[in-house]
Amino acid sequence: QLQASGGGLVQPGGSLRLSCVGSGLSFSGAAMSWLRQIPGKGFEWISDTDSNGGTRLATFARGRFSISRDNAKNTLYLQMNNLSSDDTGVYYCQGLGARGKGTLVTVSS
Fold first, then answer.
1. Do strands 103-107 and 89-95 pair parallel, antiparallel, or not at all (unpaired)?
2. CB 41 within 8 A of CB 47
3. Does the pLDDT at position 27 exceed 90?
4. How far apart are CA 67 and CA 93, in angstroms?
């Protein structure tokens, strides 16, 4: 089971760090991803990291977001900086055949 956390209300230009913990799962050797669902839209891929530590970021996330992982803690992270209202949505982690419960990010003044 995957559970994302760390969302909340932040002002434009602010930062948040999301975490995703896997219960009963081992992240080692697994590709993991972050997705989001913007209000009124479908799921949107943000970033992923492979078992070798390689990472990819969606164009809109480059320069603002970064993905990292701690396999020993079975935890995936998403550092988000310079947030805007366009980033408001529910953020999910995905991997090992599962998509965890999301965490809501609201960017508003």
1. antiparallel
2. no
3. no
4. 11
